[in-house]
Amino acid sequence: MDEITNPKLLPTGRFGCYRGFSLLFDNPGEHSLSPMTGQFWRIDCQVHADPGLALYAKLATSVEKIVLPALGPGISFSALPAYSYHVTVWDGLNEGNRKKLSERYRLDLADFLLDLPVSLQPGKFTALPESSPLVGPWSVAFQFDRLSVWGDSVLVARLKPVDGRSLEARNDIAEHRIQLYEKIESEFGLGGWRSGYAPHISLGYFWNEPGASAAAPQEDRWTEEFKHEIGSELIRFESVSLYGFLNMEIYFKRTQEPSTET
């Protein structure tokens, strides 16, 4: 059995505790959220039941048909369940960057993360992202672009805007992300955590860096096979909200009812 060194996985290969919050596009359709607890709803995409989630369905099928059968000795991989699929708009605070905050905030953030989902309420850690222009209505549609292995860790499906309007929205989002990063850095003394905006869907995590490195040369071949399976399928988003997460498959938002966007 391959050694598991990926911090987002348990020794069993299942997804372990890794808490935080981010801004995500609200998934389309009537079957993308389910009740979690209290006023919280978790991402629960019924990808084969909702036409608005057809891109997710085809990605999941492609992982099963193309990626999993191609994995050999030394390349172990934990695929994310399709119900957890989402597109991140901005990565917030989490277990991975907590120690990059000013020391005076680290214990408070640790408590915040430990208390999720209940702590995902208006407060000092969520105020800036929730007041950002990123949160609210958007109109953007994406198609599959290509597969990439990122950070010797995760296999992602990179996305591209389908038209000029979507490209403009994507560029506006990139600008607002920079502004939000600057505000968070100024408020919490956080440094060395920014990333450029590359819309994507995480498909699963490699157990260790050697496995990810061994899979990387397959990117081009897998991409062409995925394109054959997916065709011109697209996904359209209409809004962005704040979400918390407990691990890489459990994401949730604070709301009274599931999205009914189509």
Structure, explained:
This protein is an alpha+beta fold and 262 residues long. 30% of the residues lie in helices and 28% in strands. It is built from six helices and ten strands, in the order E-E-E-H-E-E-H-H-E-E-H-E-H-H-E-E. Strand 9 and strand 10 form a beta hairpin. It starts with 19 loop residues before the first strand and ends in an 8-residue tail after the last strand.
Features:
alpha+beta; 6 helices; Cyclic Phosphodiesterase, Chain: A; 262 residues; disordered C terminus; globular
User: Strand portion, in percent?
Assistant: 25-35%
Radius of gyration: 18 Å
Number of helices: 6
- Secondary structure class reads alpha+beta
Short summary of the structure?
The chain has 262 residues and is of the alpha+beta class. Helices cover 30% and strands 28% of the residues.
Write the layout of secondary structure elements.
Layout: E1 20-25, E2 33-37, E3 40-43, H1 54-70, E4 77-79, E5 88-94, H2 103-114, H3 127-131, E6 136-150, E7 154-161, H4 164-188, E8 200-206, H5 209-215, H6 219-230, E9 234-247, E10 250-254
Antiparallel strand pairs: 1-5, 1-9, 2-3, 3-10, 4-8, 6-7, 6-9, 7-8, 9-10
